[in-house]
C-alpha cells in the first residue's frame, strides 16, 4: 500500500473507534500478514518477455509496480506453470556472469525502500552449499569504494566472517567495516526448501532472522536506517541472487517465492506466512522433477570416443545426480553387456551388436519418474581392426625439430604391443637398446650436426601386425650455453588484464626491467581464460624452454573459496626455442576428478633427462 494511504486508513480507524466504543470489546486477533503492507511479490510463476528481456512480474498489487529483470538468463532458468514456478541461478565466482534478478525502481523512479522505516523480506529458497557469502538478496547502493561506500541490507545462507558458516543478515550505511550483522547458530540447510525471513525495524532499532517461521536470532540495528542505503541515482533497488559487492560470488540454487512488506511483521504473522509459502512447494517440486527428466540425456556421459548411443564401445559415466540435485538410479536390460553403473563388456564377434534398454529412475522429494534410453553396444572389434586403429593413433610430437627425448608408446589403446626400431640407435634409442631400462626408450643423444632418423613402429596383437615409419629430424647439439641475464615471467594481479603473462629481464636479480613496455605478452584463450603463477624451466639440452601457468581467473574477486572447490584440473603449457617466439597454447589435464583445483605448479630437474612436475590441489 502507498505509505500516505496507510496513514489515512490509520486516521479513519481511530475515528471509528472514538465513535463506536463498543468496538473496543475483546475480539479474535487476526495475525495474517497485512496485504496492504505487501509492496513486492515475485511468485516466480508470472513473467513476460519484452524487447528481449525477461520481466518477473510483481504480483503484490501495491500502487508502485516493481517488475524485476532476469539478468544473464543463459546462466539460469525460469520455469513455471499455472500452479507455481521457480527461478534457478547457476552461481559461480564474481566473473561467472550467473543469472540474477534485478529489482528496479518503480516507473516513477521510486526506490523499493523509499519512505520505508520497517521492512520484512522473505524468500523460499533451495540452495546448493557451494561456498560462503552467497547473497539471497541485497538491497541498497553499489559504490566503487567497496570498503566504505557500499550501503546495503542483505541475507546469506552461509556467512564467511570468522569462518562461522552460519546464516546471517545485516545492514550497513557505509561499507563492510561499518556493518551491523546478526548471525544464526548454523548455516541454512542446502538441497532443501527453506523459508528465510529477515525483519528490520528502524522504529524499534532491531534486526531479526527467522528460518521456517521460527526466530533464530535478534539484535540491535545499531541506529541504522533504510533511508541511508538508497541510491537515488541508480536504476535499481537491489538484487536477488547477487551481492551488492561486485567481487562476491553469485548465489547458486533455486528461489520459488520472494516478497517484501513495508512493516515489521510479528512472529505470529511470520509463522503463518511460512505455512502459506510451503503450499507452493509441491507444485515447484513437480516442476523441478519434470525439468530434470527433460534435461537428462546420455550423450554427455558417453566416452569421448563414442559419438552417439547407437555405437557404444566404451564405458558410460552414468550420473547419480541430475539437474537440480535430482537423484538418479539406473537399470540395464543386459547388465552382462552394460552394467547398472555403466561398465561396458562388449559382445563377441559371434554374438554381434546388442540393443539395450537403459532405465533411469529419477527421485525428488518423494516424487518419482522414469525415463528409458535405447543403447546399442557394438560387438568386439577384430584383431586386424584393433592393430590398424592403434597404429593409426601413433604420432610423434614436433618430429621436424627434435631437441629432447621422445615419448614412444609401448601399448595401444586396444591392447596391441608396440616395439620400436631406430635407424640410428646411438642417436635415438629403440626397444632393443632400452631393454631392461624401458624409461630410456626414445632417449635422444644429439650430434654435432642435424641428423635424420627413421623410427619404425611394429604394432602386434596375437598373430596380426602392422608397421609404421616416422621420419624425425634431430637437431645438432647447441654446445655450451653462455648465460648473460635472468628471465622472469609473472602476472600482475586480480583485475581486468592482470591475469596475463608478462616478462622481465635483469642482470642483477634485484633490479628488473619489464619487457614489452610493461604490457602482457601472453593471454589465455582456453579454460577460464586467466593465467597465474607462470613458471619457466630450461630443458636439459639447454636450447628449449617450457612454461606452465595456472588456469584461473579471479578478476576483481578475492574470494578463493569457490575457486578451490570447482577450480580447473588443467595446466596451460607453452614451448619456446628463444623466449621470444612461443608455441600455441596447450591445455593439459593433470588433476584427478576429485581434485578441486590445480595451482602453484613447478618443474624440477631431479636428474639428467628427468623433470618432475609439482602442483597443489584441494581434494
From TrEMBL:
Residues 304-379, 387-476 form the Atrophied bacterial Ig domain. InterPro entries: aBig_2, ConA-like_dom_sf, GH43_arabinanases, Glyco_hydro_beta-prop_sf. It comes from the Bacteria. This is Atrophied bacterial Ig domain-containing protein. Pfam families: aBig_2, Laminin_G_3. Keywords: Glycosidase, Hydrolase. GO terms for molecular function: hydrolase activity, acting on glycosyl bonds. It comes from Halalkalibacter hemicellulosilyticusJCM 9152.
Amino acid at each position: 500500500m502507498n505509505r500516505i494511504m496507510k496513514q489515512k486508513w490509520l486516521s479513519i480507524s481511530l475515528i471509528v473507534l472514538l465513535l463506536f466504543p463498543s468496538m473496543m470489546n475483546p475480539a479474535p486477533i487476526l495475525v495474517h500478514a497485512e496485504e496492504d503492507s505487501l509492496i513486492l511479490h515475485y511468485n516466480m510463476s508470472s513473467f513476460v518477455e519484452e524487447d528481449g528481456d525477461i520481466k518477473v512480474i510483481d504480483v503484490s498489487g501495491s500502487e508502485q509496480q516493481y517488475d524485476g529483470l532476469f539478468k544473464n538468463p543463459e546462466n539460469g532458468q525460469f520455469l513455471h506453470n499455472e500452479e507455481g514456478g521457480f527461478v534457478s541461478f547457476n552461481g559461480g565466482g564474481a566473473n561467472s556472469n550467473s543469472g540474477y534478478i534485478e529489482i528496479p525502481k518503480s516507473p516513477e523512479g521510486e526506490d523499493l525502500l523509499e519512505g520505508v522505516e520497517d521492512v520484512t523480506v522473505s524468500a523460499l529458497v533451495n540452495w546448493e552449499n557451494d561456498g560462503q557469502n552467497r547473497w539471497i538478496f541485497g538491497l541498497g547502493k553499489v559504490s566503487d569504494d567497496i570498503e566504505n561506500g557500499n550501503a546495503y541490507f542483505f541475507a546469506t545462507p552461509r556467512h564467511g566472517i570468522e569462518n562461522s558458516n552460519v546464516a546471517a543478515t545485516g545492514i550497513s550505511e557505509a561499507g563492510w567495516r561499518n556493518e551491523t550483522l546478526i548471525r544464526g547458530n548454523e548455516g541454512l540447510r542446502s538441497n532443501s526448501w527453506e523459508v528465510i525471513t529477515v525483519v528490520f525495524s528502524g522504529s524499534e532499532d532491531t534486526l531479526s532472522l527467522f528460518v521456517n517461521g521460527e526466530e533464530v536470532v535478534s539484535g540491535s540495528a545499531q541506529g541504522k536506517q533504510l533511508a541511508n542505503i538508497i541510491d537515488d541515482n541508480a536504476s535499481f533497488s537491489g538484487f536477488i541472487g547477487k551481492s551488492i559487492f561486485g567481487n562476491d560470488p553469485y548465489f547458486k540454487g533455486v528461489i520459488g517465492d520472494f516478497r517484501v512488506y513495508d512493516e515489521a511483521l510479528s512472529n505470529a504473522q511470520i509463522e503463518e506466512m511460512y505455512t502459506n509459502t510451503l503450499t507452493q512447494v509441491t507444485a515447484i517440486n513437480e516442476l523441478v522433477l519434470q525439468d530434470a527428466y527433460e534435461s537428462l540425456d546420455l550423450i554427455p556421459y558417453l566416452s569421448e570416443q563414442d559419438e552417439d548411443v547407437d555405437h557404444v564401445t566404451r564405458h558410460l559415466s552414468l550420473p547419480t545426480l541430475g539437474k537440480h540435485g535430482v537423484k538418479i538410479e539406473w537399470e540395464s536390460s543386459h547388465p552382462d553387456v552394460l552394467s547398472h553403473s555403466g561398465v561396458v563388456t562388449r559382445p563377441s564377434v559371434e554374438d554381434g551388436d546388442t540393443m539395450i534398454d537403459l532405465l533411469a529412475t529419477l527421485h525428488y522429494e518423494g516424487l518419482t519418474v522414469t525415463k528409458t534410453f535405447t543403447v546399442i553396444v557394438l560387438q568386439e572389434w577384430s584383431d586386424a581392426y584393433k592393430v590398424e586403429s592403434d597404429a593409426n593413433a601413433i604420432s610423434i610430437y614436433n618430429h621436424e625439430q627434435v631437441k629432447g627425448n621422445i615419448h614412444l608408446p609401448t601399448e595401444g589403446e586396444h591392447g596391441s604391443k608396440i616395439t620400436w626400431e631406430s635407424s640410428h640407435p646411438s642417436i635415438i634409442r629403440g626397444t632393443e637398446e632400452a631393454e631392461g631400462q624401458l624409461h630410456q626408450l626414445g632417449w635422444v643423444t644429439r650430434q654435432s650436426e642435424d641428423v635424420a632418423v627413421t623410427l619404425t613402429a611394429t604394432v602386434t596383437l596375437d598373430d596380426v601386425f602392422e608397421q609404421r615409419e616416422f621420419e624425425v629430424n634431430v637437431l645438432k647439439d647447441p654446445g655450451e650455453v653462455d648465460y648473460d641475464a635472468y628471465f622472469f615471467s609473472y602476472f600482475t594481479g586480480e583485475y581486468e588484464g592482470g591475469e596475463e603473462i608478462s616478462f622481465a629481464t635483469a642482470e642483477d636479480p634485484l633490479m628488473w626491467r619489464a619487457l614489452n613496455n610493461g604490457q602482457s605478452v601472453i593471454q589465455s584463450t582456453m579454460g577460464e581464460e586467466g593465467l597465474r603463477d607462470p613458471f619457466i624451466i630450461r630443458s636439459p639440452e639447454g636450447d628449449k624452454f617450457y612454461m606452465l601457468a595456472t588456469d584461473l581467473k579471479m578478476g576483481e574477486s578475492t574470494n578463493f573459496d569457490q575457486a578451490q572447490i570447482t577450480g580447473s584440473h588443467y595446466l596451460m603449457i607453452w614451448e619456446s626455442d628463444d623466449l621470444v617466439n612461443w608455441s600455441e597454447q596447450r591445455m593439459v589435464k593433470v588433476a584427478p576428478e576429485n581434485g578441486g583445483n590445480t595451482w602453484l605448479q613447478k618443474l624440477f630437474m631431479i636428474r639428467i633427462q628427468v623433470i618432475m612436475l609439482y602442483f597443489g590441489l584441494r581434494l
